[in-house]
From TrEMBL:
Belongs to the CREG family. Gene3D superfamilies: Electron Transport, Fmn-binding Protein, Chain A (2.30.110.10). It is found in: Secreted. This is Uncharacterized protein LOC113210565 isoform X2. It comes from the Eukaryota. Keywords: Glycoprotein, Secreted, Signal. Residues 158-325 form the CREG-like beta-barrel domain. Its main location: secreted. Residues 355-364 have a biased composition (Basic and acidic residues).
Length: 364
């Protein structure tokens, strides 16, 4: 009995001494995975071969038989090279001064990029292409298509001769505006300051021309505007697709801008206007509907006193308020696209007169 036990213990010792260390095991694993992958590769190869001519197929089969792949390397050699490459990669990030410094930054970045790329790839495989497009450009067009008329209508900007219509068009099609006001914050007290507010001037097919906002007094811009409500709103055609499509720089006067000056007024809760503002604002900015209660969001609108439109060359145009409110941006033929106006050299200041020298002279 004792002898038998001793024999068992000895046997166990012999087995456990078998030189399979962790590294070796790892390589074994890797070999196995590689073999599996290779087999799968060969299977597809085989299928490809069957599609080709008989002669090519025969040659390929012969190659496979000789254990030689396309590059003329034997499978063993290929495998050895892969192991070597892997070892080299590992030693690169372990080598520096014997200290474990970790992988170099470029490696990590490359890894993250690859991971992100694969994630995108998976995403694009599962999400239909036109849905992806909509998601990437999730602007008003999505709304136009979905909720309003049920029909996708993309209206083109009016011609540059229709200045009031252009002002209405930009205000109506802007989802946000840059708001300029006078700062009351300690660091910039008394200086001009700008903020970005989401705006909506009406439902998709029913614009009012008055930009409505939904703002919180936690915003420093709103705090300053509470003390001095005078401000100017700047909006540009560059917020839509038109300028990009026509290759117009945002500073190009043909990529029109509109500047509304006036005072910011809050809209009283419980009034008819409040209900209207709520409807038209959240129609375009549904994500702002559920703002935290303690941020005390409220509706505001711009009481417009002056309108400037920069469209085409020759300086900005003043639009009388009555003309602005009488114009309708919805009435333009949606199927007609606005042609990019030609450059009229005579209207560019200094371009065709001796004034140009003044512009070119360096500042003294
Ligand atoms: C457009 O809005 C105004 C109020 O701003 C309303 O009186 C009018 O009926 C609306 N028109 C349409 C077609 O919805
Ligand atoms: C308006 O008043 C109603 C009822 O008092 C309240 O539930 C709502 O939160 C108020 N909305 C805003 C934006 O102040």
């Amino acid at each position: 009995m004792r002898l038998a036990l001793l024999a068992l213990v000895l046997l166990a010792l012999v087995i456990s001494n078998h030189p399979i260390d962790a590294r070796h095991k790892g390589e074994e694993n890797w070999k196995q995975r590689y073999r599996k992958w290779k087999e799968a590769e060969e299977q597809t190869h085989h299928h490809d071969v069957l599609i080709g001519t008989d002669e090519a197929a025969a040659a390929r089969v012969q190659d496979e038989h000789n254990d030689v792949n396309n590059d003329g390397l034997s499978e063993k050699e290929l495998w050895r090279q892969r192991i070597e490459a892997k070892k080299q990669r590992q030693s690169q990030w372990q080598a520096s001064d014997g200290k474990q410094e970790g992988r170099p930054m470029s490696d990590i970045t490359a890894w993250h990029e690859e991971k992100w790329r694969r994630k995108q790839e998976r995403h694009y495989k599962t999400v239909p292409h036109d849905l992806q497009r909509q998601k990437r450009h999730q602007t008003r067009e999505l709304k136009l298509e979905g909720e309003s008329s049920g029909k996708f209508v993309r209206k083109s900007p009016p011609p540059h001769t229709k200045v009031a219509e252009m002002a209405r068009y930009i205000v109506h099609n802007s989802d946000w505006a840059a708001v300029a006001y006078t700062s009351r914050q300690p660091e910039t007290f008394g200086l001009p300051m700008a903020d970005i507010f989401s705006i909506s001037d009406g439902l998709v097919d029913n614009s009012t021309g008055v930009p409505y906002m939904y703002i919180s007094p936690l915003d420093t811009g709103v705090q300053d505007l509470a003390k001095d409500s005078r401000c100017s709103l700047a909006m540009s055609l560059a917020q839509g697709n038109y300028c990009k499509q026509e290759g117009l720089d945002p500073e190009d006067p043909r990529c029109a801008h509109v500047f509304l000056t006036g005072k910011l007024k809050t809209v009283k809760n419980g009034t008819e206007e409040f209900a209207r503002a709520e409807k038209l604002f959240f129609d375009r900015h549904p994500k702002l509907r559920n703002m935290p209660k303690d941020h005390r969001f409220r509706f505001a609108k711009l009481k417009i006193s002056n309108i400037l439109v920069q469209d085409y060359f020759g300086g900005p145009a003043h639009i009388p308020l009555a003309e602005y409110f009488a114009a309708k941006p919805e009435e333009f033929n949606p199927s007609k696209t606005r042609p990019v106006p030609e450059v009229d050299a005579e209207l560019i200041p200094g371009a065709s007169s001796s004034d140009s020298e003044k512009w070119l002279r360096p500042i003294e």
